[in-house]
Amino acid sequence: MHIGCPKEIKPQEFRVGMTPNAAHEAILAGHTVTIETNAGAGAGFTDEDYIAVGAKIVGTAKEVFDTADMIVKVKEPQAGERKMLREGQLLFTYLHLAPDPEQTKDLLASGCTAIAYETVTDDRGGLPLLAPMSEVAGRLAPQVGSWTLQKANGGRGVLMGGVPGVGPAKVVVIGGGVVGTHAAKIAAGMGADVTVLDRSLPRLRYLDDVFGGTFKTSYASAGNTIELARQADMIIGAVLIPGAAAPKLIKRDQLSELKPGAVLVDVAIDQGGCFETSRATTHQDPIYDVDGIMHYCVANMPGAVARTSTIALGNATMPFMMALANKGWKQACADDKHLLNGLNVHAGQLTYYAVGEALGIDVLSPQLAIK
Ligand SMILES: NC(=O)c1ccc[n+]([C@@H]2O[C@H](COP(=O)([O-])OP(=O)(O)OC[C@H]3O[C@@H](n4cnc5c(N)ncnc54)[C@H](O)[C@@H]3O)[C@@H](O)[C@H]2O)c1
What we know:
Bound molecules: nicotinamide-adenine-dinucleotide
Order of helices and strands: EHEHEHEHEHEHEHEHEHEEEEHHHEEHH
Distance between the termini: 21 Å
Number of helices: 14
Strand content: 15-25%
Number of strands: 15
Largest sheet: 8 strands, mixed
Low-confidence stretches: none
Helix content: 25-40%
Mean pLDDT: 97
């Protein structure tokens, strides 16, 4: 198969769909790989890194789209990219179609087959191509939160680990899923006193069994949440109710109960945020102050560490990309129901029920699409 990887053009996107390692893997299996010049630059990969493993570098995205059987990307195709997709071409990337009727219309019109990273599943009910970005955002949260805690940035002026004779920062993590667990591990590793709140007792049991000596757990009742929040130097919001907006767990009028200069890191901002006073910010201007409480609410946190994020995403997408290239998409999806769950669009029809429901468009069963 001829696999193509264009440079990402969405503003502030520095990741790239294929690492040199992924290109190498595909070439070893007998496939051809074409990469747009400078596609990997934002993640620290040069054209020479790709050439060294046998990939071909071309000057424009058009040359990639014109020649490739499968396009591998990171972000949803932008309007100009969608015009270059053609009938029968395979697109493998994040799509997030439900809130995006324009993109959906263009993908249907193109006649391409599109497999969305975010709806590929695994045997444990997880989303294996979203998990690496949650791991990155979770591990980044205490790092950016500790910077915000510094006095010059508006924070309380508290050091995460304290020093001999001075206690550590108190960190509360609300939501103990992928983001929350990684945030708690890193905050504890920095020496902070960490408590994780969740509403799922099985999850709290798991966290206690595995991390009992590293951080504490607490049930996320409204009472426990505000009591722990009052004592906290940093609160990390990491809740998710799948398919729903994040619940507002700290209200505006409760900010006055928090310590002055406390820091709220709202990782759940991409689902609307779990603090009432959260609004999405950017890496250029990441923090703001409401009533003396500092907020960090960057909606695409993994972009700050584009190299780590690219490699983490590449590790997760590579086996699926290889199955698609080796077997063709129909056979690969027939052999793997989790990859079939990623099928969103085929030959002018939607093949993902939740997207069809959200946009009021009829859906072709994915099982029929692969027949
Ligand atoms: N800002 C970013 O750059 C970025 C990056 C990655 C993920 N995210 C977001 O982070 C959030 C968390 O993602 P995840 O992968 O950890 O999800 P997850 O499903 O692994 O974990 C969510 C956890 O929240 C818990 N929860 C639900 N409602 C709760 C409540 N009311 N109180 C306490 N806990 C509650 C669930 O039991 C679950 O354990 C999502 O909104 C995700 O989109 C943001």
